[in-house]
Amino acid sequence: MPAAGAPQCLEARISRKHHRRADGATVAVLRDVHLVLNRGEFVCLLGPSGCGKTTTLRILAGLDADFEGRVTRAEGPMGIVFQEPRLLPWRTVEENIRLVLPRADRSRDLHPLLAELGLADHAGLFPHALSLGLARRVALARALAVEPDWLVLDEPFVSLDAAAAARLRAELQRFADRRGAAVLMVTHDVREALTLADRLVLLAGRPAGVVGEMVLETPRAERTASWVEAQSARLARCFDATPPAAEARPGAASGERPPAPV
Amino acid sequence: MARVGVKALSLAALLGCWQLAASAAHSPALPPPAAVFDFMLREAVGGDLLANLAITLARVVAAFLLAMGVGVVVGIAFGRRPGLDRALDPWLVLLLNTPALVITVLCYIWLGLTETAAVVAVALNKMPNVTVLLREGTRALSPELDEMARAYRLAPLDRLRHVMLPQLEPYVAGAARSGLALVWKIVLVVELLGRPDGVGYAISVYFQLFDVRAVLGYALSFMAVMLAVEYLILQPFEAHARRWRPAVS
Lengths: 262, 249
Hints:
CATH superfamily of chain B: MetI-like
Shape of chain B: globular
Oligomer: heterodimer
Helix content of chain B: over 70%
Low-confidence stretches of chain A: 1-5, 241-257
Strand content of chain B: under 5%
Mean pLDDT of chain B: 90
Number of strands of chain A: 9
Order of helices and strands of chain B: HHHHHHHHHH
CATH topology of chain B: MetI-like fold
Strand content of chain A: 15-25%
Low-confidence stretches of chain B: none
CATH class of chain B: Mainly Alpha
Radius of gyration of chain B: 22 Å
């Protein structure tokens, strides 16, 4: 757990974000989203499907500049994993990974990384020959290959079977711990978030805003299945039953933490 | 192997029909295949056939490369910049619909009866076609992969080579194959109108002599050259570029 006041990796103040529909009308998607990612911190952005999590992530990653507000990012490489693997179908697994490396680094030995992610036997394959689980693993390998200071992941484990998802989660966790990288992960899976994160940020409403934050101080190793269930029930009590006015939510306006969830 | 057999059989049947028709007509306007092949062999050994083929082939290659090069770049620019496309689309439509003969005559008038004029005329006939195809291809580029490339800050050259061009490759291949056929047909007309050598010139000379044997001989020779280019260069290139795709049976 990073100390309070650790240098920030990312700070975003999105006052407003609109989508333009095909008929020309604008729809407000985000409103007053304030988000901080500290160095070495693992933050999960939680919220119902379609509430604007991906939009938030794209803004944070610098892929969408069409919003009102300000995002400051620390220098340093960013790794990103999209919802779909987004591999180049005409390049092999290994070429896909090499391509995102800085030029001077292109001929680096990728074997340790590939081996660690169980991809050593697949390096020469084209993406169409991979299962979705493998393709996602390649996308994760690509993000890790740039040795990022911060990682952005958009529901990277969705539609994987439980075992594959658990394995990838563990690999991500191991990398983040070893490298001290900050991770911002979008998910709608509360249990996944509770298993991995140092802090949860809850996004909800229309337009969506931050409706709550929850700091998880229990060390990851001590988060048993029953602990996860209990926390998840607690979260549901706090957030699902109340109306979507941000001020009504615990910890929303001030950013204070709810009672320590231990 | 069976497929090759069918193709060979079909070709033999065509030759058979030709032979039958020639025997029935019994006229110099339709010589039998043997006479044509005999002419080709003699002209290849002792005549100008090979020299004329080489000259025309050089013009085809020059015009083809020029048309593809300019057409691809302009097509990508049009596909990427809707404003440019809107502004210059009428020019493109105009050029697309200018008859080959008019372009050729104007090129000869404005640039003189030169090699440059011939090549430019052929290229101008093909170029708008390439542009239209590549514009479509550029519009169909995947925004998801583009976003991935931006997120990982790929250098412009890497984006072009690894992200954009492979997506455009089917369009380039389509433009190349349809283009080659169009270019070599137009080259002959351009040669006929204003060049003192080449297959088109030779055909016009033999036309004036009413030597159908020679006309067919030249035509067949050049078709053979273009088929060789198609099978030995274009198709292997395409197969290489498609190697990543799942096999379709």
